[in-house]
Structure formats: structure tokens, C-alpha cells
Amino acid sequence: MAKEKESESKSERILNAAEELFARHGYDGVTMRQIASRAEVDVALANYHFGKKEELFHAVFNRRAEILSATRRKVLMESQKQAGKGKQSLEQIIEAFLLPLKIAQESQEPGWRNYMALLAYVLTSPVWNEVLMPTVFDKRVEEFIDALKSALPDAREEDIHWCYHYVSGALALTLAQTGRIDRLTGGQCKSTDFDTAYNLMIPFVAAGFREVCKPKKKRK
Amino acid sequence: MAKEKESESKSERILNAAEELFARHGYDGVTMRQIASRAEVDVALANYHFGKKEELFHAVFNRRAEILSATRRKVLMESQKQAGKGKQSLEQIIEAFLLPLKIAQESQEPGWRNYMALLAYVLTSPVWNEVLMPTVFDKRVEEFIDALKSALPDAREEDIHWCYHYVSGALALTLAQTGRIDRLTGGQCKSTDFDTAYNLMIPFVAAGFREVCKPKKKRK
DNA sequence: GTCTATACCGTGATAGAC
DNA sequence: GTCTATCACGGTATAGAC
């Protein structure tokens, strides 16, 4: 279809092809030969640039992880600064957490959209989550949790973490773009409509946090 | 380790072994030989009983899908009957949706726990979601959505569907048992603690539904 | 240094003989 | 039901071209 492979270096083409295929089929569902073929390069070239298959997977994942993580940090800090000494609202904190993904998606670069699905794959995989999430993303999560603690000073720490877990799940399924919501609504809602997904997710999870983390009488 | 393979037929052993391996490594991450070896049967026997690899995967998925779906239907109808002509509360509807998973998990049969992770894998996979969800689970979802519509008569249908999408995501990540919450909390919260996960999920998502689906002034 | 052609050797799914 | 042979395909190393 598109023919402007000329503008990218071969090693970028490999990363992009791998990103797209890994996102859709997972690590084991893709062969080095498929990647090379989609990137229109020789089979051995991916090996030459990135080492073995697993290292290529790491390279694909980390390339945009760094960017996303840096943006996340910046947005969260700016949001804190902007709130000044008044407390940040829950909505502001959650929005700061989601905004970098929205920005990335709006860049219109299809690679980012593929990366979203890859991130969903890693988030939900028992195997890869452990390998890839700690190095980059987990650090930003700690900061996010800290911000939530300030906004919900009476909450139990476990409750905040469970709520974060639900956010993370809702987000992961959104990133995965499985097409299920399209099917269930006969096309009325679209998996690719990140804008609506994020706009509704913010009030949804903010209300959830408030309910679960409100001061309680008792819990055994 | 365990040696009581005698009590199960060979074909059950194959299904159980496949379930466990597919749940952890996905469809492509598992070979027929690994399955046979774990089930302690000959390589060709899985083929003999279930046909090719993809058909075995379908068999594994559908075995418990039928059970879960039937329970879900029963629980939802009983909950509706019990509410009588008074409307069901949101919490009751959500609880009815989640209860079958809780029951399954509490059966202590490890197969169910593996199946949960497999379900999470299928839910979040762009490829398998489309193939496997429509036949069994999607029908129950329609009933669930209908119940939600009755409880939220003023809501826009799209909003209900997006909220269901968030529930589905939170649920999927819970079922996946990735161990991430354990890591982030230093072991304070546990991925395997379904009881807490469900108990907090109900108020969390109920509040989210109420917030997103409350009557609004405007939306373009 | 970047890249290609090719060869190696293990492993996989599966069919057919037993 | 089981054992085994087949044959394609996978990851990767190597040799050398540009």
C-alpha cells in the first residue's frame, strides 16, 4: 500500500514492523522472517542491528516507553505546579496520568497506535509484565500513587492500589483496541475512539476512587 | 510434584495441561509437545482427541465458557426475580455479573484459576477476542447491559457501553493475575486475592456508572 | 560499518503405520 | 490408542559484498 519506506532508515523500518506485528500477535506469534519481510529487509538484518529476537522485543518496547514516561513525568509535575498550594483534584491527577497517551495517539503516527496495543499486551501478560514494566513504567506509577494519596489523605493505601489496578485494567483494554465494543454496539462505539474513551474514563474512575476511598466506619 | 493424574482421563489431562500453558504463554507460546509432556501422554494423543492445535485451543476455551455462561445467566435471573418489581440496584446487577467468577475461583480447583487467566488473554487479544467471545460470552453481556439500562433509565446507551468496557478491562486485568499489584505494593496486595478484588470492584464501578450515566445538561 | 545470501540445525505439527 | 517419520519452518551464525 504505502510506499514511503524511503524516508525511514532500515533499522527504523525493522522496529516499526516488529512493533506492529508484536502488538497484534504477541511475542511468540511473530517470526523474525515476518518482521523482515514486512520491513522489506533481509532476514539477517534485524539480528545484525538488535541481536536476538528477545532483544529486538525489548528495543521495540523501550523505544517509546522512554518517551511516554518522560512526558508523563512532565505532565504530572506541571499539573501539580499549576494546582499551587491548593490540592490537585482527583480529576486533574487522573487526567495528567492519561494525557500523555492521548497526546501520543493524537500525533496521528500509526506507530503510536500500534505501541498502545503492545503496551496492553505487556500489561496483561503474566510473563512480560514482570520483565518489562519495572524498568520504566513502574517508577511513574509510584509518583501517580503519591499524588493520589495527597488527594485522598484518609484512604487506606491498599484501597488506592486496588483502585489504581482497576484504572490500569480499564486503560489496558482501551489500548488493546480489540474491537469488542464495536461489535457489542453494532458500530455505535469504536475501539479506536480514544478521545471518548479517555473523556469518560476520567469521571468514571474518579467517582470510583471517591467511593472506595471514602472514610469508612469498619472493615474487618 | 502432584501425582494423582490417575483420577483423570487422558483427555482431561490434556485439556488441563493445555489450559495451564495457554493461560500463561498464550496460543503461540505453547507447543503440542509441551502440552503432551505436561499431561504425560504421547504427543499424538492430543491430535487424536481434539484435532489440530487451534481446535484444542477452542475446546479448552469452550469447556468452561459454557459452565460460566450458564451460571451467569442463572445468577442474573435469580437476582432479578429477588428484586421483584422493585428495581435492581446497580450493585446487585454488578455483583450478579461477577459472582460466577467468584464462585468458580472459590471452588479451589486450580483449573479454574488457570481458566481465568486464559479468559483474560482472550479478552485482551485483538485476534482471539473476535474469534472466541461472540459464540458464548457476548450473549450474556447483552442481558447484563439490558439490566443496566433498566437501572439507569436516563443514561445514553453509549455511556453504558463505555462503562461496561471499563468494567471488562478492570476484570480482565484482575483475571490475568500478572503479579503487578504485588510488586507495586511490596506484597501488601495480592493478584491472587480475588475476594478483595471483587469486593472493591463492585462499589468502584457502581460509582463510576452513576457518575458517567447521570442526567446531563449538554454534550455536543 | 551496513547489508545480503545462504546454510545449519533444532523443533514443530501432523499423517500414517502399527 | 501409540510410535515414528516426514517435512516445513524457526532462530541464528557465517561469509563475504558494497
Topology overview:
The structure is a homodimer of 220-residue chains.
Chain A: H1 10-25, H2 32-39, H3 43-50, H4 53-83, H5 90-106, H6 110-124, H7 126-132, H8 137-151, H9 157-176, H10 180-184, H11 194-213
Helix pairs in contact in A: 1-2, 1-4, 1-6, 2-3, 4-5, 4-8, 5-8, 5-11, 6-7, 6-9, 9-11
Chain A binds a DNA duplex (18 and 18 nucleotides) through residues 10, 31-33, 41-45, 47-49, 52-53.
Taken from the alpha-carbon principal axes, the silhouette of chain A is elongated
What kind of assembly state do the chains in view correspond to? Answer: homodimer
CATH topology-level name of the largest domain in chain A:
Tetracycline Repressor, domain 2
The main pleated sheet of chain A reads as:
none
Helix percentage of chain A:
over 70%
- The helix/strand order of chain A is HHHHHHHHHHH
Radius of gyration of chain A: 19 Å
Number of strands of chain A: 0
What's the architecture of the largest domain in chain A in CATH terms? Orthogonal Bundle
* End-to-end separation of chain A: 61 Å
User: What would you give as the CATH superfamily of the largest domain in chain A?
Assistant: Tetracycline Repressor, domain 2
Q: List segments of chain A where confidence is low: pLDDT < 50 over at least 5 consecutive residues.
A: none
Mean pLDDT of chain A: 94
Q: In the CATH hierarchy, what is the class of the largest domain in chain A?
A: Mainly Alpha
Largest interface: A-B, 64 and 64 residues
